[in-house]
Amino acid sequence: MAFITLSDYKPLLIQKIKSGYPVKNSTDWDIYIKNFPFDIYPEMKDIPINDRHDQNGDEEYTPDTPVFKSFTSDVEFLCLSDKGTTLDKSISLTEYLSHNGMNKIYDTYSGLGRTNVRYVKTSDAKLYKGATQDILVFKVTFKFNDPITRITLTL
Q: Is 116 contained in some domain?
């Protein structure tokens, strides 16, 4: 089995938007972020265009306050745990993410946090079995319904 240094990986912090839910750490499930791709700034929604056939070019209405499209992102996770437990832990995390409404999430490596985030699916799972520990690498697709609001970590 490959040698994994967990200090190279960081956790994801998760909180349900509904009141009364504490902040959960992905390390509660022995799960760490392997790769969290993100765009620096979201894509703008299409703007109204008037394309007059008797004139060159077109007219675009550009609002003073633009609006942005929601987006999805595939976040890759790594679960390093006792032999035979990684699958149950990954299922438990995805059940937490997919139940009881929207989430707030915070990537402790990049410092990027978003709200109104929805679990979409889990994919590309790869299991590596060791003598005493197993490694499960898998992706979770999130939909970021609020592409602008950033949340920050306050301790």
A: yes
Nearest by Cα to 140 from 88, 109, 108, 97: 97
The answer on pLDDT for 152 being more than 90 is: no
120 vs 146: CA distance, rounded Å: 15
Let me know if residue 112 belongs to a domain. Answer: yes
Residue-range definition of the domain harbouring residue 136: 15-37+71-150
In the chain, the amino acid numbered 136 is L
Distance from C-alpha of 54 to C-alpha of 133, rounded to nearest angstrom: 71
Tokens describing residue 74 = 């595939």
pTM of the model: 0.89
42 with 117: CB under 8 angstroms?
no
Up-side HSE of residue 138: CA atoms within 13 Å toward CB?
Answer: 20
DSSP 8-state class, residue 147 = S
Structure tokens at 58: 């077109």
Helix (H/G/I), strand (E/B), else coil: 88: helix
Reply yes or no on whether the pLDDT at 144 is more than 90.
Answer: yes
Q: Please indicate, yes or no, if residue 120 is contained in any of the structural domains.
A: yes
Burial 98-118 (b: 16+ CB within 10 A, else e): eeeeebbbbbbeeeebbbbbb
